[in-house]
Amino acid sequence: MLRNETIAAIATAMTNAGISVIRVSGPDAFAVTDRIFRSPKKDFRLSDQKGYTAHYGHIVDGDEFVDEVLVLVMRAPHSYTTEDTAEISCHGGMLVTRRILELVLKHGARLAEPGEFTKRAFLGGRIDIAEAEAVMDLIESKNDLALKNSVRQLSGELSKKVKKWRDTIIFNTAFLESAIDDPEHYSLDGYRDKLKSTLIPLDQELKRAEDSFSEGRVIRDGINTVILGKPNVGKSSLMNVLVGSDRAIVTDIAGTTRDTLEEQIRLRGISLNIIDTAGIHNTDNPVEQIGVDRARRVVDEADLILYILDASRPFDENDREILNLIRGRRAIVLLNKTDLPAVISPAEAEQFSGQEVLPISAREQQGIHALENQIETMFLNGAVGEDDEILLTNVRHREAVAEARNSIEMVLQSIRDGVPEDFYTIDLMNAYESLGRIIGESLGDDLADEIFSRFCMGK
Ligand code: GDP
């Protein structure tokens, strides 16, 4: 990818809208746009204008009028990409927007690859790779908490932490190397204990970051939830109650990797992806109907199982089979139909299932708040509310942190084993490099390309 090329793309959504923006970035951004822009002012050229100014005029194709537009001029390095950038705001019709893009391309720009604007921001040193990834997460945020977390990462919170960790490591490595090279001026007396008391809290902090991943992922992608229970216990009814409240937004997402449907609902800022187990209806043996393998798979993929028991009917073989299926999984046991005369008491249900039971009535909408509370405490622990807490939402980040921890633990092991100090620096530098990958230092070209190719067009 050559940064001396001028690139262009439609930066707004590809639907009819009030306005659309075509973004042009690179050394010829203004020259290219000047070729198709006519201002009512005499001898006007965008190339002569100051940064952060907006200019009214028309886009023309030769003599033909195409659209009335505003062009925003941003001069390097004060733009998103750090390059000269013209943003053409036109009337939002798809046809017009495409036509203007085609004109820009005809007059010297090349179509941007997905994520290329952000990649240029990275190459221009304006943002690091973790911030670039946060841009993508921000665009894809499905709920408020995910949004909040990616805004935090975008404002450099994660990068700041990573830099702090790396500073600690590099400081100690530098000290060690100096002391080894120049023992007359630097003493290593008592250094091991000192290093140990630095690395142990660092390791703990990294562990907390690593552990935040499952929570971070859940916030970003939603909690994969399965509602299980024998026929007629009230699975659909519960689903409707959860979906039907005002705050819920229901969408059908055809599962891309599985052959089931998902409903996505929002609950207090987190998304629940409820995996539809429709196959469980219409049979006496749910496990057979759904197919044991498929049921297992659905259960295996789930972050959360809502297992429903029926308070108005005795336990049967189906209840037991399903109970077996969910053993060892993160599950909430619900005792439904508590508005009917009870055949099973909560205490009996607890004894049967071996865990705490929430009494509910899907019909009367009782106990639903308690259920929501429980989901919230199970998955959030309030962590997102704390100001300096960063949740790792990215597999790449988690792996880098895990590798760094590994290296740091090797140093701690060496200290315990009384290995001489000159052996520590390799592991320390490995930890330093692993963490560097999060912010894009020591990041191979291939990886950078892969990261940016996941962006949408025009970003
Ligand atoms: P599913 O087969 O597990 O999806 O069960 P449904 O949600 O279709 O419910 C089966 C029947 O139980 C329906 O007639 C519901 O109206 C009824 N039902 C569901 N929840 C309750 C409840 O809390 N109380 C009472 N009385 N009936 C319920």
What does this structure look like?
The chain has 459 residues and is an alpha/beta fold. It folds into three domains: 2-126, Probable tRNA modification gtpase trme, domain 1 (Gyrase A, domain 2, 2-Layer Sandwich); 134-217 and 390-453, Four Helix Bundle (Hemerythrin (Met), subunit A) (Up-down Bundle); 221-384, Rossmann fold (3-Layer(aba) Sandwich). 45% of the residues lie in helices and 18% in strands. The protein has 16 helices and 14 strands. The protein has helices at residues 29-34, 94-106, 116-123, 129-140, 144-154, 157-181, 191-221, 235-244, 286-290, 292-301, 317-325, 346-353, 368-379, 395-417, 424-439, 445-453; strands spanning 7-10, 19-25, 37-38, 53-61, 64-74, 85-91, 110-111, 223-228, 251-254, 261-267, 270-275, 304-310, 331-336, 357-359. The chain is flat. The two termini are 16 Å apart. The structure holds guanosine-5'-diphosphate (GDP). The site of guanosine-5'-diphosphate has 16 residues, from helix 8.
